[in-house]
């Protein structure tokens, strides 16, 4: 392999390192040079970015959980065990 | 190390302020449940793990020294708890490998037959049939529930370590430092796992979107 050129097969392994800013400067330059001149790798790079974006959308899915009331009860139990000086507002009750 | 916001939350919890706890719950519950589901066999068990996590947070809050961010601490409690439970159930045996001793194998991000082999081409290792432009796909298809299912199935098929990293980084949007702290792995190992995970999800998406 030519020491100064990145092949497509090498580039696909470096996408995350590139996005994380973890490539050494010379590799970083080779990566960008290759990407700007190679349609196929540009598409691959875009696909990886699409992938990251689409995976990120999973955070929007809401998982229902009815646990809140039960947990607030447990919180109140826990609060009763707190040492007195930790809960001055109780003095007014 | 602690943000002002974290410090306020910790103070609030220590003095037993229920509204502080309730808003912490609202902010974290969904994420904790999603993380627990990575390890637990079903929703019921995941909810149990999350509840135990909250109780451990309350029990530990007076001793929490703030050497890590509050989020890192809470996630660590959950993940340790979830791993214990999953190991107990025999679902998590492959995590006993020490990550830093056993980095991922050399499995390629893209199957080798997508590239020109070594010598028979003026451009060795360049694409044989290159990836297509997903920018041309209809937005509806990219954002469909079906696409989400393909992604979920792909993540489910990852190794446990890959699944942990992609979940913390790309779904929960933690920084690499936070993810490394929680999982106890090196930055470079984390990047390898993240890259493998993303590459496999991309491949699954390609199979689905372009068929």
Strand content of chain B: under 5%
Radius of gyration of chain A: 27 Å
Low-confidence stretches of chain A: none
**DSSP helical segment count of chain A:** 5
CATH third-level topology of the largest domain in chain B: Arc Repressor Mutant, subunit A
Task: Say how many strands of chain A there are.
Answer: 0
Report the average pLDDT across residues of chain B.
Answer: 89
Q: Structural class, from secondary structure content of chain A?
A: mainly alpha
Give the DSSP E fraction of chain A (strand runs of 2 or more residues). Answer: under 5%
The gyration radius over C-alpha positions of chain B equals 21 Å
Q: Most extensive chain contact?
A: A-B, 50 and 61 residues
CATH architecture of the largest domain in chain B: Orthogonal Bundle
Number of helices of chain B: 9
Instruction: Give the termini separation of chain A.
Output: 78 Å
Can you put this structure into words, describing what you see?
The complex is a heterodimer of chains A (93) and B (211). With 93 residues, chain A is mainly α. Helix content of chain A is 57%, strand content 0%. Chain A has five helices and no strands. The longest helix of chain A has 18 residues. The mean pLDDT of chain A is 86. Chain B is an all-alpha fold. Chain B has two domains: 91 residues, Rna Polymerase Sigma Factor, Chain: A (Orthogonal Bundle); 98 residues, Winged helix-like DNA-binding domain superfamily/Winged helix DNA-binding domain (Arc Repressor Mutant, subunit A, Orthogonal Bundle). Chain B contains nine helices and no strands. Chain B is elongated. Classes of the chains: A mainly alpha (93), B mainly alpha (211). The interface between A and B is large, with 50 and 61 residues.
């Amino acid at each position: 392999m030519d020491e100064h050129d990145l092949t497509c097969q090498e580039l696909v392994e470096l996408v995350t390192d590139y996005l994380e800013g973890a490539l050494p400067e010379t590799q970083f330059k080779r990566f960008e040079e290759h990407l700007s001149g190679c349609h196929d790798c540009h598409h691959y790079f875009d696909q990886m970015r699409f992938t990251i974006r689409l995976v990120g959308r999973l955070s929007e899915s809401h998982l229902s959980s009815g646990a809140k009331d039960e947990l607030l009860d447990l919180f109140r139990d826990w609060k009763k065990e707190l040492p007195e000086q930790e809960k001055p507002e109780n003095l007014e009750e | 190390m602690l943000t002002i916001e974290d410090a306020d939350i910790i103070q609030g919890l220590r003095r037993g302020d229920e509204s502080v706890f309730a808003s912490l719950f609202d902010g974290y519950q969904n994420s904790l449940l999603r993380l627990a589901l990575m390890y637990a066999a079903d929703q019921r068990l995941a909810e149990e793990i999350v509840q135990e996590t909250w109780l451990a947070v309350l029990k530990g809050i007076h001793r929490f020294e703030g050497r890590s961010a509050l989020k890192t601490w809470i996630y660590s409690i959950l993940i340790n708890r979830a791993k214990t439970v999953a190991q107990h159930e025999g679902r998590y045996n492959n995590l006993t490998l020490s990550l830093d001793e056993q980095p991922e194998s050399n499995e390629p991000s893209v199957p080798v037959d997508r590239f020109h082999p070594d010598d028979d081409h003026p451009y060795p290792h360049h694409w044989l049939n290159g990836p297509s432009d997903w920018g041309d796909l209809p937005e509806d298809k990219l954002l469909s529930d079906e696409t989400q299912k393909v992604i979920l199935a792909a993540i489910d098929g990852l190794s446990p370590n890959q699944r942990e990293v992609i979940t913390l980084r790309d779904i929960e949007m933690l920084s690499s430092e936070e993810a490394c702290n929680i999982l106890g792995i090196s930055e470079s190992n984390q990047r390898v796992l993240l890259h493998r995970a993303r590459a496999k999800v991309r491949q699954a998406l390609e199979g689905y979107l372009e068929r």
